[in-house]
Every structure is written in C-alpha cells, then in structure tokens.
Amino acid sequence: MTPWLIVGLGNPGPPYAGHRHNVGAMVLVELAARTGANLRSHKACAVAAEVRIPVQQGGPSGGAPGPRAVIATPLSYMNESGGPVAGLLSFYKIPVENLIVIHDELDIPFADVRLKLGGGEGGHNGLRSITKSIGTRDYLRVRVGIGRPPGRMDPADYVLHDFSGTERSEVPLLISDAADAVERLVTEGLAAAQQQWHSP
User: Fold this and answer.
1) Distance set, CA 155 to CA 80, 99, 149 (Å)
2) What is the rounded CA–CA span in Å between residue 18 and residue 119?
3) How far, in Å, CA of 69 to CA of 37, rounded?
4) Is residue 24 within 8 Å of residue 103, measured between CB atoms?
5) Taking the model in full, what pTM does it have?
C-alpha cells in the first residue's frame, strides 16, 4: 500500500520550541516517540523517519502491522515549509492524497482538534507555502486549536509566544489527542476520525 507523509509544522531551533506556532512539530515528536522512530536529517531540508502507524484499540488491524508512513518536520522556517514538503513527496513517491499536515489553528478553541481535507489557509504561512509548492489545497490537515489572541494582541505575535501557564498544563493532553487523531485518520479514514474528534 502507498505510504503516508505526515508533516508537523513549526519553526526550527530551541528559541521557537515551545511556541504555539510549533504545536504541529510537537505532535510529530509525539508520533516519533510512539513509533520508536529516530528522526534523521533528510536532503529535503527536513528531519524524517519511516514508521508504521499503530492501529488503535478496536481498529481494523486483523493482527497486521499498521500502515507505512514517513513522519517529518521541515528544517526551514514556517513560511518556507512548502519546499521540504514537496521534496519529501517527490523523494518517497507519495501522492498528495496521502499528505497529512499537522498545524496550529487560531480559529479553533485551545485544546480542540479538528480534521479536514482542503480548504483555505486562514492566513497560515506554512499552509500557504505548502499549497504554493505542491500546486493544490487538497491535502489533509489535522488542525490543533490554539485559540484567538487576547484583547488587541496581534495574531502574528500571539503564535510566536509560549503557551500560558494555565494552558501549559493541558498541552501534553492536547498533543496526545492530536497524535491520536492522526493515527485514526491514517488507519480508519477521514470520516471516522472526524466522527470521533468533531462530536460534542
């Protein structure tokens, strides 16, 4: 079966590691930990690993190993994410239909996770760069809610700040939820994943 490419977006380097904008990359690290993967430098300006995505309890496994996937995080800045994503798709010969991008989402309440296929970029520079580089908006997204900035704070400043003290205690659960959503999306499809994560 055709493998998946699962990309977690963020900015490179320790100064950005805890920022809201980096929550996609945080989820990718969680997926690497779950699969025992060692992310290695890739010539597409990314760190990547080939893994098997675990089938969740009650899922359709039949004892077979889970689907093959390449998990990756670009080493470029957020607004240049498209080049590495296009390079990875080409290198591993993965069709765009099997691309999943994990990213922060201002328009979703903090700690909520949503999934969709295609649509606009909502001002997200990482998504905008990917769409431009691969020539389509029709790829799967796992949208990790970070909520709107308080008061009149500029969204561009908000995403480049660490989570607040009260949020920080919930971040591990949010990252775990988003990783669960990725696994369900890969193993059971978009409709099943949306049914779980979009239910009230």
Assistant:
1) 19, 27, 6
2) 27
3) 11
4) yes
5) 0.94
Go through the chain and tell me how many residues it has. 200
Instruction: Please state, in angstroms and rounded to a whole number, the distance separating the CA atoms of residues 191 and 197.
Output: 10
Residues 6 or more apart whose CB falls under 8 angstroms from that of 2 comprise: 94, 95, 98
What separation, in Å, do the N-terminal and C-terminal C-alpha atoms of the chain show?
A: 34
- What tens digit of pLDDT does each residue of 14-66 get? 999 999 999 999 999 999 999 999 999 999 999 999 999 987 665 554 556 78
Q: Which two tokens stand for residue 31?
A: 């997926």
d(CA 59, CA 37): 22
> Which token pair is 181?
């959503």
Helix (H, G, I), strand (E, B) or coil at 48: strand
Question: Residue 110 corresponds to which amino acid?
Answer: F
Q: What angle do CA 158, 164, 168 make, to 5 degrees?
A: 125
List active site positions: 21
